Automatic annotation (TrEMBL):
Its EC number is 1.11.1.5. InterPro entries: Cyt_c-like_dom, Cyt_c-like_dom_sf, Cytochrome_c_Peroxidase/MauG, Di-haem_cyt_c_peroxidsae, MauG/Cytc_peroxidase. It comes from the Bacteria. The keyword Oxidoreductase applies. It is found in: Periplasm. It comes from Stieleria varia. Residues 74-206, 225-344 form the Cytochrome c domain. This is Cytochrome c551 peroxidase. Heme c 1 binds at residues 96, 99-100. It holds the Pfam family CCP_MauG.
Length: 352
């Protein structure tokens, strides 16, 4: 049997592409007495059927989020237990979920998080939702991934105020929990296995099926006219230069105050305002922060590293002034807000 490749042009609404169709043609076989063929019309029918089943994505600088379905479920659910376990804190009052409420935007809604013994952190807690897709962790990017990030709050004396020896000792006193843990990690409870389980859970916290993602997948009715106009303005004004990709941000660092001085809005004297400078010690990284994702931004007020901006409308106004040198009208801000609201997706129900 011979294998021939035919290249057939296929027109779609999104693009003109070439689809390679395998056409099988064979000589008369003595044992079967038949010839296997797929003519050009059959090939086009196959392509047409596949195209209708899998509509092409709109070609935009923002791409849809895709859920993580290949993670071991037992590990993810163990991670959820640990994420919500107050025994990870020094005085058994705080869990990871205390500052990262998965049901309400993945953060805590405070300018600075409430830590152990009533202490208040100096930075606004970022959302945990979709965090596995970020270029780095923390506002200054000091942790390269979630594996590096997870131990930080546990050991921070202002946040959870504990250590691995203390945490593991407490967990090992719970016979039922130990048995459940060993069913996933036969080696038992260790610092590495605790982190691995928590990170598996965090990897699963992807917010899918936002109205904007449905629009990207071809649903013309997913967005309101205001949201679509807001997206167009978001692109034409230049917001898209920093907020694009799957996360609509989260994939680079940028100086806050490109067009207007940082200290016109923030406390430039605070070490927490140094941004990435604290990590790299490069003067060029002063006031340079990881660009936050705009996914679910409707749910993550207050805004910016200091948590000093209460409303999304005000955050849009500030970004226009400080980063673009623009002054949006109230109507333009309302439209951009409508677009940003359309980026709100859903976490799997049993992960909340």
């Amino acid at each position: 049997m011979l294998l021939r490749i035919l290249t057939i042009p296929v027109i779609s609404t999104a693009t003109l592409s070439l689809v390679c169709v395998v056409v099988l043609a064979g000589r008369h076989q003595a044992d079967s007495g038949c010839v296997t063929t797929l003519d050009a019309q059959d090939a086009l029918d196959v392509v047409g059927k596949r195209s209708s089943e899998q509509p092409m994505l709109r070609r935009e600088p923002i791409t849809p989020l895709v859920g993580k379905h290949d993670l071991p479920r037992s590990k993810v659910m163990l991670g959820k237990l640990l994420f919500n376990d107050v025994r990870l804190s020094g005085n058994n009052t705080l869990s990871c979920a205390s500052c990262h409420n998965v049901s309400e935007g993945g953060d805590d809604g405070r300018p600075g998080s409430l830590g152990i013994d009533g202490q208040i952190g100096g930075l606004n807690a970022p959302t945990v939702l979709n965090s596995s897709l970020s270029i780095a962790q923390f506002w200054d990017g000091r942790a390269k991934d979630l594996y590096e990030q997870a131990p930080g709050p546990i050991h921070n004396p202002i946040e959870m105020g504990s250590n691995w020896d203390e945490v593991i000792s407490k967990l090992n006193r719970d016979h039922d929990f130990v048995q459940e843990f060993r069913s996933v990690y036969p080696g038992g409870i260790t610092a590495d296995s605790i982190v691995d389980a928590i990170v598996a859970y965090e990897f699963a916290l992807v917010t899918v099926d936002s109205p904007f993602d449905l629009y990207l997948k071809g649903d013309d009715d997913a967005l309101s006219s205001d949201a679509l106009d807001g997206y167009r303005l978001f692109k034409s004004a230049g917001c898209i230069s920093c907020h694009q990709g799957q996360l609509v941000g989260g994939n680079m660092f940028q100086t806050f105050g490109v067009m207007k001085d940082f200290d016109d809005r923030f406390d430039a004297s605070s070490e927490l305002s140094n941004g990435r400078l604290n990590v790299t010690q490069r003067e060029s990284d002063l006031h340079r922060f990881k660009i936050p994702s705009l996914r679910n931004v409707q749910l993550t007020a207050p805004y910016f590293h200091d948590g000093g901006t209460a409303s999304l409308e005000e955050a849009i106004r500030i970004m226009a002034e400080f980063q673009l040198g623009e002054s949006f009208s109230d109507k333009e801000i309302a439209r951009i807000r409508a677009f940003l609201v359309s980026l709100t997706g859903q976490v799997e129900e049993d992960l909340r």
